[in-house]
């Protein structure tokens, strides 16, 4: 059983997708906390979905480490053993990451290590990228860094706008993130000494209407 804490800062669409998928595999995964560092739409959606929520607002603490300590205590009190960042837009300190070593996962809207940071879709378009996508990775103290668990890529259209590309990548995220979590819960993916190991013959991933069987290549391509 994976007991999940999901950290958010905004819209919360990845969190809701994870919640929906977790509900279907309830014997293997459970969301024990949705926490946010600011009031946001996602926290309201989580409460509306009947999930346990907590606001750990940076403004309620004298400094960042006070906020992180309260967050860590909430996570531990909820009994979470995995922390999923889903649009949590604050950089976690090295001491927080160490406290939950190899137990924090993030999703980022680019094919890391390319395009770390913000505005990834606009930057992909202005750089003329033909390939773009999303990455699920283990969190280390460096921003948008850490061992890659799985990536999903798509081909950028020549006349595509930033919002069109963002929507397509978000759809990819909504398939990719739950897939990785269910793979961890099922033992198809294991983290050993900080490194991901996919079980040979791990299940295929369903992205949109397409089934892609070779997750072991680390990057799945969405046509
Ligand atoms: C997602 O696109 C996620 O990949 C991104 O924030 C968005 C949150 O959307 N995360 C990062 O950029 C982390 N560096 P959501 O709140 O609807 O899930």
Number of domains: 1
Examine the secondary-structure arrangement and name the CATH architecture: 3-Layer(aba) Sandwich
Distance between the termini: 34 Å
Strand order of the largest sheet: 3-2-1-4-5-6-7-12
Given the structure, what is the number of helices? 6
| Count of individual beta strands | 12
Walk me through the topology.
Blueprint: E1 2-8, H1 13-24, E2 29-36, H2 41-48, E3 53-55, H3 64-77, E4 82-85, H4 94-99, E5 104-108, H5 120-126, E6 131-138, E7 148-155, H6 162-186, E8 189-192, E9 195-198, E10 205-207, E11 210-212, E12 219-222
Parallel strand pairs: 1-2, 1-4, 2-3, 4-5, 7-12
Antiparallel strand pairs: 5-6, 6-7, 8-9, 10-11
Helix pairs in contact: 1-6
The structure holds glycinamide ribonucleotide.
Glycinamide ribonucleotide binds next to helix 1, strand 5 and helix 6.
């Amino acid at each position: 059983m994976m007991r999940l804490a999901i950290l958010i800062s905004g819209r919360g669409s990845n969190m809701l997708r994870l919640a929906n998928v977790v509900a279907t595999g309830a014997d293997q995964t459970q969301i024990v906390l949705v926490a946010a560092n600011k009031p946001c739409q996602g926290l309201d959606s989580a409460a509306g979905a009947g999930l346990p929520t907590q606001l750990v607002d940076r403004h309620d603490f004298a400094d960042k480490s006070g906020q992180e300590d309260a967050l860590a205590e909430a996570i531990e009190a909820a009994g979470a053993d995995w922390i999923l960042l889903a649009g949590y837009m604050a950089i976690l300190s090295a001491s927080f990451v160490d406290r939950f070593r190899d137990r924090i996962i993030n999703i980022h809207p680019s094919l890391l290590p390319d395009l770390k940071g913000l505005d990834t879709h606009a930057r992909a378009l202005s750089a003329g990228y033909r390939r773009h996508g999303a990455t699920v990775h283990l969190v280390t103290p460096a921003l948008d860094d850490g061992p890659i668990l799985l990536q999903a890529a798509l081909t950028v259209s020549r006349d595509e706008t930033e919002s069109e590309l963002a929507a397509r990548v978000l759809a990819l995220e909504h398939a990719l993130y739950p897939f990785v979590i269910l793979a961890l819960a099922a033992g198809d993916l294991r983290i050993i000494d900080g490194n991901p190991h996919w079980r040979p013959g791990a299940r295929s991933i369903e992205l949109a209407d397409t089934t892609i069987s070779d997750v072991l290549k680390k990057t799945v391509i969405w046509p």
